[in-house]
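testing teh design pipeline on a random one, pls ignore if ur not involved
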């Protein structure tokens, strides 16, 4: 019997199962999610990985059938995972075919609307190639999933023809770096730079980042300070059957963690927002805005709790509460935002360009003072890790 026919029979008999590869937060060192991966059991107790049987399934036109058959199984597994009391997000891979006909989207939305699953516990991973060549039907499906509260991740980022336009056009909430860059990272400075800049770009776009292919402790520790949110790979854990994943969640293991990466990303985005504001104000000084082009866009100024640094400070940064160099950040940060608000109000009131020059220098000094406090905190955290 041909492999394609054997697989079709196995699918009819319900033999396929999910194995789950954990994802670990670089901030906490705890398991925060897992990726659901298809496996086909052999008679000897081993499993055929999806990479070996999916080409036959694709050639036989069975991809959409697999998704329809296996999604209810995924929902059952999700219920058991959530019963552990852990806030664990499970990622499920889909193809362009799944998104093109709308059947999967309807199944997911029905499961969410009926209370069968919490939308926050499910993430849909779409390959970069699917995203780049997305048809109008695929775009509608992705938008529908986002409206249902399901997060969307671009998988295999960096191996195809991705672009900023694609990330801007489609409603992704996460970006998953392809393992090919990670595997070369320690021996290739260029690959390391690509990983760093991709993480920084994702941060500026407001996207969560996941790095796959972590095959050694050296790679894991190198990534600790890069600012990515989560990592997965065989060094952390191979894909596990559901029962093994549940046991692992119950054991609640912890890997190395660091707040430095998240702090660096918050600094980066906050600095970028300030530079964008400064550029617009400089345009005003040069006469562009005063000549009738309008006022300074209010959207450039966010509240001190809404900017990237504020979201970090009042969110994940709370893990550093009690650290003296963390506590001193709040006052200069709030003062800087108050100053920006006053400055924008003065501009709207007709502040002369000559007077604005002095105010821009004051803005620069206040920003430098906050940057110095952030740098001191970062250095203290790195020194603490050395200890």
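output:
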């Amino acid at each position: 019997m041909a492999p394609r026919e054997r697989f079709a029979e196995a699918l009819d008999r319900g033999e396929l199962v999910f194995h789950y590869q954990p994802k670990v937060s670089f901030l906490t060192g705890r398991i925060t999610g897992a990726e659901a991966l298809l496996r086909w059991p052999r008679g000897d107790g081993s499993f055929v990985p999806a990479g070996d049987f999916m080409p036959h399934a694709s050639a036989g036109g069975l991809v959409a059938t697999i998704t329809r058959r296996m999604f209810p199984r995924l929902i059952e597994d999700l219920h058991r995972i959530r019963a552990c009391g852990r806030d664990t997000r499970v990622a499920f891979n889909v193809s362009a075919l799944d998104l093109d006909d709308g059947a999967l989207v309807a199944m997911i939305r029905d499961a969410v609307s009926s209370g069968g699953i919490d939308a926050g516990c499910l993430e849909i991973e779409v390959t970069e190639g699917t995203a780049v060549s997305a048809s109008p039907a695929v775009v509608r499906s992705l938008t529908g999933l986002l409206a249902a509260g399901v997060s969307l991740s671009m998988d295999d980022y960096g191996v195809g023809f991705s672009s900023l336009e694609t990330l801007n056009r489609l409603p992704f909430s996460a970006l998953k770096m392809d393992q090919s860059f990670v595997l070369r990272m320690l021996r290739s400075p260029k690959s390391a730079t690509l990983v760093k800049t991709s993480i920084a770009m994702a941060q500026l776009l407001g996207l969560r980042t996941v790095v796959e292919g972590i095959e050694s402790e050296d790679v894991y520790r190198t990534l600790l300070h890069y600012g990515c949110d989560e990592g997965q790979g065989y060094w952390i854990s191979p894909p596990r059957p559901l029962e093994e994943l549940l046991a692992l969640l119950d054991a609640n293991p912890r890997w190395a963690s660091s707040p430095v990466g998240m702090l660096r990303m918050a600094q980066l985005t906050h600095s970028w927002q300030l530079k964008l504001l400064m550029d617009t104000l400089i345009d005003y000084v040069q006469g562009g805005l005063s000549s009738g082009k309008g006022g300074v866009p209010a959207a450039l100024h966010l509240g001190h709790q809404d900017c990237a640094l504020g979201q970090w400070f009042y969110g994940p940064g709370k893990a550093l509460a009690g650290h003296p160099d963390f506590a001193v950040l709040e006052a200069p940060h709030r003062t800087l935002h108050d100053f920006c608000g006053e400055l924008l109000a003065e501009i709207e009131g007709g502040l002369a360009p000559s007077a604005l020059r002095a105010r821009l220098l004051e803005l620069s000094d206040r920003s430098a003072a906050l940057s110095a406090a952030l740098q001191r905190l970062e250095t203290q955290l790195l020194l603490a890790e050395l200890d």
